[in-house]
Amino acid sequence: MRFSVGIFGNQPLPRLVQQVKLAEDLGYYGVWLTDTQLLSREVYVSLTACALKTSRIKLGTGVTMPHTRHPSVTASAFATLNEIARGRLRIGISIGDNGLRTVGRSMATIKELEAYVTVLKSLLSNRSVKFEDGVEGKIAWLERPTDIPIYVAATGPRLTRTAGRIGDGVMLLRGLNPDQMGAGVAIVRQEARRAGRPAGEPDIICWIQSSLGRDRELARAHAQGLVAEVLQMCAIEMFDEEDRPAIRRIKKDYDFYKQNMVYGEDRALIPDKFIDMFSLAGTAPEARERIAELMQVEGLNEVIICPQHFEGSPGPSVEETLSTFAEGVMANLI
Amino acid sequence: MKFAVGIFGNQPLPQIIQREKLAEDLGYDCAWFADLQRICRELYVEMTASALGTSRIQLGAGVTMPITRHASVTASAFATLNEIAQGRLRAGISIGDNGLRSVGYNPVPIAELEHYVGQVRGLLQNQTVQFEGGVEGKLAWLERPTDIPIYIAATGPRLTRAAGRMGDGAILLRGLTHHQMQDGVDAFRQEAEKAGKRPDQVKVSCWVQASLGPDRALARNMVKGPVAVILS
User: Fold this and answer.
1) A232 CB within 8 Å of a chain B CB
2) Which of A81, A104, A135 sits opposite B45 (nearest CB)?
3) Which of A16, A245, A317, B200 has minimal Cβ neighbours within 10 Å of its Cβ?
4) In this complex, which of A10, A77, A135 lies closest to B42 when CB atoms are compared?
5) What is the mean pLDDT of the segment spanning B214-229?
6) How far apart are CA B94 and CA B75, in angstroms?
7) Mean pLDDT of B94-110
8) What pLDDT sits at residue A216?
9) Cα dihedral sign for A237, A239, A240, A245?
10) Is B67 in contact with A70 (Cβ distance < 8 A)?
């Protein structure tokens, strides 16, 4: 099992770079940076700075989407990064969420995502593609194909199937219940088989909201904001009928600009049950137990630990969660 | 008079960074990076690497455009760069040329450019702006307004006047004959004044294709390509 880190760039770039450096020093395999331009630092500026200040850790978008950048821009950015971080890059992409909703654009359809991924793949393989109006072209300066893998992130079953078909990797967002995760992995594998892909493809990984530290209560309270963020993103089909009204309410009330809302009067919005289903929250020993369970899911290759800083939260810092996991969990499992 | 360089990123990124450092060491005031994703290295990757590799020289987009990146992405990129290159940034924007044509789009109408510039400016000044469908948004993480100037690149008279209205500066692309350039400067300044800007508030730059060396014939031959690009 590989362990990576997801970083939400709501902190100044120099601090973000330090966190990525810390992740590298702590032995994490990779880092995925969010792409949500109004809420995070811009992802290619951030990736470039991280590429120059680290030497080993893998770097990726976690995740980008169609509609805010032309695919030729995204391909060009990765091809350019490849000149300073060869072999260290991964593209994470999906239909978009807050990066689109905060600017009034709708999420991409699965068809649009497939088309976008196809263009990215072709350009990064040094092939010509057809753009608008019949104009054809490639990245003129690319000398040879790059081998940057594309990971498609998915929650619901339909997108998960698509990801299994087209992704070099699939990034599952399904909390950390082993049954839920196992179901997701099964969908991916079934679809990959149906598409005639060789065994072992695609690479299946998962994204876990994380809040870890010495103070259990603080860590769990902090996790509420992290869980709310994920719940508003998750496909409604993933939930039992009895939970759907609560999820709908979260989807309706979630305010992108108030991620720390749970420290106010909305605290009761996130029932404890969801904290357990959708986050790794608490102390190192309990996190170790839960990760050990998750590792029983056959076919899952990487867990992305995603801490997040909220202005004014007394909960664990990004650094504390990363260190707690590395020292208290990773060190005992690898 | 200040002297700047235009950097066309058709060389590997490590070479671009070296060139940028050379420009700084030679005393140039600013480096402007082309935004032409299929022909050049990606703009914000170049600018970030250059920002980290230099300490004084100004860095500009020379020039970006609507359509290929959402205005919120452009504003976010500049605001992020501002955290590692405060006071050293310039946003050059225009209606787009090869960056759009090479992916099958036409340059945008001036009204669309004005709308885009308005959104980028609003976000960089830490204001809430209106996006599609009436959705309002701002750069959530920006603590205070940035003072990144927006330069509008222009060739024709209509865009040059529009630049006077919306720009903190202009980048004029008019060759290098005296009267041509004077006409452009006058048109820009006149319109800027009409828009209530003090003459010392706006800056005028010009973009000149260049090829210089000890071998005159070779230098003149080498510049034919760049000149053809401009004439097109």
Assistant:
1) no
2) A81
3) B200
4) A77
5) 90
6) 15
7) 94
8) 95
9) negative
10) yes
Who contacts A112 (Cβ-Cβ below 8 Å, separation ≥6)?
A66, A67, A95
Of the partner residues A45, A73, A133, the one whose CB lies closest to the CB of residue B81 = A45
CB atoms B137 and A46 under 8 Å? no
Looking at chain A, the whole-number percentage of residues with pLDDT higher than 70 is: 96
Residues 6+ apart with CB under 8 A from A284: A212, A324, A325, A327, A328, A329
Q: Does B133 touch chain A (CB under 8 A)?
A: yes
Mean pLDDT score, B48-69: 97
Q: B83–A13: do the CB atoms touch at under 8 Å?
A: yes
Q: What pLDDT does A264 receive?
A: 46
Of B145, B183, B146, B139, the residue nearest A40 (C-alpha): B139
| Closest chain B CA to residue A53 | B52
B residues 196-225 closer than 8 Å to A (CB): none
- Find chain A residues with C-beta within 8 A of B46's C-beta: 80
User: Residue A273 has what pLDDT?
Assistant: 87
What count of other Cβ atoms lies within 10 Å of the Cβ of residue B14?
A: 12
Contacts of B7 (CB under 8 A, 6+ apart): B16, B19, B20, B23, B31, B32, B33, B34, B46, B62
- Integer angstrom CA distances of residue A19 from A24, A212, A237: 9, 15, 35
CA–CA dist A48, B166 (Å, integer): 31
Could you tell me which chain B residue has the CA closest to the CA of A9?
B141
Q: At A136, give phi and psi (nearest 5°).
A: -110, 150
- Of all residues in chain A, the one with the smallest CA distance to B40 is A141
A contact test, residue of B67, B68, B80 with most A CBs within 10 A = B80
Global pTM reads 0.96
- ipTM at complex level: 0.96
> What percent of chain B has a predicted confidence (pLDDT) above 70?
100
**Neighbour count for residue A266 (Cβ, 10 Å):** 16
pLDDT grade for A263, boundaries at 50, 70 and 90 = very low
**B103 touches B68 (CB < 8 A):** yes
B45 CB near a chain A CB, below 8 Å? Answer: yes
What per-residue confidence (pLDDT) applies to A266? 56
Q: Answer whether B41 sits within 8 Å of A10, measured CB to CB.
A: no
**Contact call for A137 and B103, based on CB within 8 A:** yes
Decide: helix, strand or coil at residue A305. strand
Task: Give the chain B residue whose CA is nearest to the CA of A11.
Answer: B141
Please write the tens of the pLDDT for every residue from A159-218: 999 999 999 999 999 999 999 999 999 999 999 999 999 999 999 999 999 999 999 999
Contact assignment for B104 to A133 by CB distance below 8 Å: yes
Q: Lowest-confidence range among A203-212, A287-296, B216-225?
A: B216-225
